[in-house]
Amino acid sequence: MADTSPTTESNAIPHWYTDDDVLTLVDGDGVTVYDDGGEAYLDFASQLYCVNAGHGEERIVDAITDQASRIAYVSSAKDNDERTALARRLAEVAPGDLSNVFFSVSGSEANESAVQFAREYTGGRKVLTRYQSYHGATYGAASLTGDPETRNAMGRQVETGGAAKFLPPLTHRSPFDGDTPAEVAEQAADHLEYVIHNEGPDSIAAILMEPVGGTSGAYPPPADYLQRVRDLCDEYGILLITDEVITGFGRCGEWFGVDTEDVVPDLLTFAKGATSAYVPLAGVIAGPEITEHLHDAGIDVGQTFAGHPLACAAGRAAMDAYADGMIENARKRSEHLEDRLRELAAHDTVGTVRGRGLLWAVEFTDPATGDPFLNPWIESGDNPVDDVIDETQDRGVLIGGGRPRTQIIVSPPLPVTDAEIDEAVDALDASVEAVFG
Prior knowledge:
Layout: E1 25-29, E2 32-35, E3 40-43, H1 46-49, H2 58-70, H3 81-93, E4 100-104, H4 107-122, E5 126-130, H5 139-144, H6 148-155, E6 163-166, H7 181-199, E7 204-209, H8 225-236, E8 239-243, E9 267-270, E10 282-286, H9 288-297, H10 309-342, E11 350-356, E12 359-364, H11 384-394, E13 397-398, E14 400-401, E15 407-410, H12 418-436
Parallel strand pairs: 3-13, 5-6, 5-7, 7-8, 8-9
Antiparallel strand pairs: 1-2, 2-3, 4-10, 9-10, 11-12, 12-15, 14-15
Helix pairs in contact: 2-10, 3-10, 7-8, 10-12, 11-12
């Protein structure tokens, strides 16, 4: 671990900042990170669900260093050998015929770019997204986001149009009354078709969704739901965009989350795990027809740091690491993580446990009512879920808070071991007991 002295004050303003107690991290190795006082923590949030390869992966570090020694920056309007090599590598693992990459910097910008391309290609202006979704926090991406905290925080300054919402196929406290996941999937798809009819199919450019919910609660779709969405898109001439910002690069046990559903989208967005977050990188992967249209029509916008050579070098090295056993390990460890998390149901305050691969949510509910103890989207007050997160950190494990924070998100790096899973879930178990008794 690096020799660093503790810092007591920072001039940097944290994001998602609500209080003065901000952890200062200065070093990391594998699944473990260290604060400025030398304390170790198991990183079961992968920071922001992005350090998929773990901390201190030397293959990525070496690739960045080598690229920096050759040429550190090339305009995003020009070609670069590393940029081209990564685009080809992404095409090899992308679903179906998705084969051409428009690089970006962040997931928010990737989603905005995908929406722009869909609108230009189809001539439609509307994009349908789900309530209880997250697609970013820039003005455009926030309008796509179904999380009201994010959408309303940006909307206080300006509202951006062209986005309409539909209900997600939740199988717990669902807005639908199906008795089985299959019935919920059918009702949710019928509802989506109803929304399409009422918005006007010709006005809709795309449906944008996460194949497995991310911070909204790691919701895997009911069986056949995503295929029905694909069928609706085909029937009404609407593009399907899958937001793989969290679910990509092994997080769900395959290269992309949509691979677990055997559905091919028209556009796929990525970020976070693309470089294991060692350097910011994002993008959109498109098929040949949309790519040809973009080539013919031209692209009048761009981003200075899109496809940065250092990021592309990091991306190729990260993909090498993922292919060298990490995705396979994620598949193997997912069953153990699920089993251990489901043991938490022994606490009567644990409502549901759900997820896929190494992306899981644990929701807390009042056993007397089955409802959350506090939903910060609709009420204020002390939230015991915050206390669970704090208690778990005090026990040396970092976990995330979901949207809404009626739940926690557990999402370790791909090289996690069963022993690390046991240590983390034991700490979480003790924390739940400490908070709820």
